[in-house]
Each structure stands twice: as structure tokens, then as C-alpha cells.
Amino acid sequence: MTEDLVERLRKRAEIRRNIPTRKSVQNGEPDRIADLLEEAADALEATISSTGYLDVNRRLNKEWAIQNEKIQMLEKECAALRQQLRQMEYQTYGGVSQ
Questions:
Q1: DSSP states of 37-80 as a string?
Q2: Long-range CB contacts (< 8 A, 24+ apart) of 42-50?
Q3: Between 49 and 86, where is the model more confident?
Q4: What's residue 77's pLDDT?
Q5: Where are the chain's structural domains?
Q6: CB-side exposure of 97: number of CA atoms within 13 Å?
Q7: pLDDT in tens, 12-71
Q8: Which of 14, 35, 41, 65 lies at a CB distance of 3.0 to 4.6 Å from 9, suitable for a disulfide?
């Protein structure tokens, strides 16, 4: 999400610099707002790098994948247990519905 914000800030700066009707574009002058957008993107990216956000995000994604795999295994075990229960009920009641 944060990486997306960095990309959006940079894209907006690029768009502003390429609008032919803008006075700064017509005069070949710098666009101060576009410069601020890029500065904000750079600062945000530097903050992300210095805080290890990306590393934390990768670790969380890896942990999520491990937990998701455990859930899938438990679901398979539950399905097997349900099947065993049905077989036991069939054996006990001889296939007669209750």
C-alpha cells in the first residue's frame, strides 16, 4: 500500500509536468508542486527503507502463508474425521436414517 502511494505521488508529478496548458510547462520552468510531490515520494521511500517496513511486510507475508498452510491441513483433517464419523454411523445404524 505504501509502495503504491510512492508510485502514485511520482506519477502525479510526471502528469503535472506533461500538461501542455500549464504555464510552467509552456515557459519551461520547474513545477514546484510536482517537485514537492517527488520530494514527498523520496522521503516516504527513505522512511520505508530505514524502518525496515519492507522486511517486516515480507516476514508477515511468509508467516501468513505458513498459517494458511496449517489451516488447510486442519481442514483436511476435519474432512477426514467427518468421513470416519459417517462411516461409524453407517456401521452402527446400518445405513438407516435417523
A1: HHHHHHHHHHHHHHHTHHHHHHHHHHHHHHHHHHHHHHHHHHHH
A2: 44/2, 44/5, 44/6, 44/9, 45/6, 48/2, 48/3, 48/6
A3: 86
A4: 94
A5: 1-51, 56-98
A6: 0
A7: 999 999 999 998 888 988 899 999 999 999 998 888 777 766 677 778 888 889 998 999
A8: 41
